[in-house]
Design a protein that fits this description.
This protein is an alpha+beta fold. The chain has one domain: Peptide Methionine Sulfoxide Reductase, Chain A (2-Layer Sandwich), CATH 3.30.1060. It has eight helices and eight strands. Helix 2 crosses helix 4 and helix 4 crosses helix 7.
Length: 237
């Protein structure tokens, strides 16, 4: 299975720890914190559905986080930043396509704003201070990036990054890129709902389940216990 690449390093880490007789503890995520809300947010408007496309390392964890957010109707793993003909896992994994593993989040802006989506993204979904990597994953395909769907989204994202950097919200600068004008392409079916379907995979246990736990801890009013799944929503297109 191609997805084995994602947790090979984690499996080796577990084996080493067990051989050493050490207790297995998830590595400290370090950057999870309840960040201030954006001072500039996108107005809701009349629409009842809006889309955000976000990249923050392996899409399994980012998708898993947003599937547990109130007001989100769909979270789909996929690729953004490159061309349609290279939007496949094997090619994207080369780091040469321009794509980043991304998640398309569909939400009701009257229940949760775009700014609040970004607040969760920066607070718990990934570490925005890591350049071209997240945890054990390295390469531009794991970069921190926002793919705005409108000028209003681009303005909100750019202003929020500046706000966080000016406030020194993290110990290091936020390196998240804002990349407008990119198309999102859904990933292969076996990547969808991966966290929900494989909660005991070593990679998920170490890297991604803590993100969902931090969502519940830091944003209790926005947390939903039952995730909204691609498999039941039919949102994989």
């Amino acid at each position: 299975m191609t997805e084995t690449r994602k947790f090979t390093a984690a499996t080796r880490l577990i084996a080493a720890l067990l051989l050493a007789g050490a207790a297995l503890q998830p590595p400290a995520q370090g950057e999870e914190r309840a960040l201030p809300a954006p001072t500039q947010d996108e107005p809701a408007g009349a629409a009842t559905s809006e889309t955000a496309v976000l990249a923050g390392g392996c899409f399994w964890g980012v998708q898993g986080v947003f599937q547990h957010v109130q007001g989100v109707s769909s979270a789909v793993s996929g690729y953004a930043g490159g061309d349609k003909q290279t939007a496949g896992y094997e090619m994207v994994s080369s780091g040469m396509t321009g794509h980043a593993e991304s998640v398309r989040v569909t939400f009701d802006p009257h229940k949760i704003s775009y700014g609040r989506i970004l607040q969760i993204y920066f607070s718990v979904a990934h570490d925005p201070t890591q350049l071209n990597r997240q945890g054990p994953d390295h390469g531009t395909q794991y970069r921190s990036a926002i793919f705005p769907m409108s000028e209003a989204q681009a303005a909100t994202a750019t202003a929020y990054i500046a706000q966080l950097n000016e406030a020194h919200a993290f110990d290091r600068p936020v390196v998240t890129r804002v990349e407008p004008g990119r198309t999102f392409y859904p990933a292969e079916a076996y990547h969808q709902d991966f966290l929900a379907r494989n909660p005991t995979y070593p990679y998920i246990v170490i890297n991604d389940l803590p993100k969902v736990e931090n969502l519940q801890r830091l944003f209790p009013t926005l947390y939903r216990a039952e995730p909204v799944l691609v498999a039941t929503a039919g949102a994989g297109n």
